[in-house]
Amino acid sequence: MQLGTYPTPVQHLAALSRPGTSLWIKRDDLTNPVYGGNKIRKIEKLLAEAKRRGARRIVTVGAVGSNYVLATGIFALPLGVGVDAVVVPQPRTQHVVDNLRADLAQGITLLPASSYAHAAVLVASRLGRGAYYVPAGGSNRIGVMGYVDAAAELAAQVRAGEMPMPDLVVVALGSGGTVAGLVAGFAAEGMTSKVLGVTVAQPPWIVEGQARSLAKKCAPKGALQDLPKRLEVDRRYLGRGYGYSTAKGESALAEAAKVGLSLDLTYTAKAFAAALDRVAEGRAPTVLFWHTLSSARMDLLLRDAPDERAIDGKLTSLLRDAG
Predict the structure, then answer these.
(1) Which residue in 85, 100, 196, 228 is a FRET match for 121, CA 20 to 30 A apart?
(2) H or E element, residue 80
């Protein structure tokens, strides 16, 4: 099952490069014109598995403004696969509220949980005949294989001369699946590129452990010993925590806007800040920022969405102060 348009472009960001270090971008924001971003490559695999199992519902979990939950609903529901999403608190931003409204417009069943411990109980209550469970971010072995394929796609673009071999690939590290797939995929392709996972979720040690574990499950056996040195994790950009903005992220968002790129303060701005810092340091001749946020028009998804004031109180109670 293919939902995306591939290969996504690679582009040189000359205006943000520096002498001795060039900055490039992999445009996975363009994976689908309805709703793009990194989730699409995972959801292709996961929906195919759900259909293979004869599942009538996907049961999953995420923050109340989760991009993954929204993307799953957009692509699963038209195929006759329902989506039950257990959602946990997140700082309130306009992006989060828009995602929540779009969830309701798609027909996603949202089940509010006060914490991830509470979420586990609610998830268990929704499992049963016809249900296929997918963890947060679509980051299980099946979903991660979408980014093993993405690594092969980039390797083909490098071989075709579309860009130099990147010394460092910078990507947001949330549920761990995208980072894991790239690490495993680069190993499979024999690429020399290292991956910098920029921590955007909590607890940091669990996030990092998840990424390393998934990479081991998806990498060729002959590459397992080589995996640890392929992944670097940087926690310095997390700030106050998941969903909270940082000064560096806000600055990176402004720099990206100068070259026509849209970022969000939860994931991509923090990762782009790390990419800009690596360019300024000048230690890696070619830095590639892997763009993971959808750049599709949200207004189309919100056309039939309920007004913000009509959102159920149980859901709005999960929107914390983002200040």
Answers:
(1) 100
(2) none
How high is the pLDDT of residue 101? 96
pLDDT tens readout for residues 161-192: 999 999 999 999 999 999 999 999 999 999 99
**The pLDDT of residue 139 is above 70:** yes
* CA–CA separation, 123 and 84 (whole Å): 9
Q: For residue 295, what are the β-bridge partners?
A: none
The pair of three-digit structure tokens given for residue 81, joined into one six-digit string:
């696969």
Cβ neighbours around 256 below 10 Å, total: 23
pTM of the shown model: 0.96
Q: Which residue has the tokens 């800009």?
A: 276
Domains in the chain, ordered, with CATH? 10-38+140-291 (3.40.50.1100), 39-138 (3.40.50.1100)
Q: How far apart are CA 6 and CA 1, in angstroms?
A: 13
Alpha-helical runs (H) found in the chain: 39-52, 67-76, 94-106, 116-126, 141-159, 177-189, 204-218, 247-258, 268-281, 298-301, 313-316
> How distant is the alpha carbon of residue 60 from its chain centre?
15
